[in-house]
Amino acid sequence: MEDIAERDQENTGWISGGKSDGPVASVSRSMTPRKVFFTCGSGSHDDELISFELALRDAGVERFNLVPVSSIFPPGCEIITVEDGLEELNPGQVVFCVMAKKSSREEGKQIFASIGAAVPDDPSLHGYLTEYSGYYMGEDVGKHAEKMAEYMLETAFGIRPGKTFNITKISEVEKCTTVVSLAIFVM
To answer: The domain that contains 53 carries what CATH number?
Structure first.
């Protein structure tokens, strides 16, 4: 990936008329994710923070500084595998994500965390991601997360999504259990 500082040395334009050929445009483009992958995990421990860490380990993303963001699927963003995504990230890197998380100490109950996605056929439009979590009672929570994302896309653009999908983690509570589902962005 091109270094932002190198690009900014070349671009010295000012913002005018809502567009920029300068450093602001370069930074803006560099802050739009190019790729995304989806993962989920679960962890149990006596301590809630450690159960969260174990859930992140189970999801394979514990070594990053995760920054939760709101639920927009960027225009033109490529969906990649977890393995390919992890190869592009470095330990300690600040990584933006959409995260659904649920923790509980109510042993014997089940909890869930789900990310639903609605992606338009037109890659110039953004899609939607939804976070949904709670106590699992046997319903199709993944499908509900998809339907929420689909509703957001339909009401924003008046179009049906080209595809919908979800990633959902359901776990029975032991000690303190945390479940996470994540959309991890690669810049």
So the answer is: 3.50.20.10
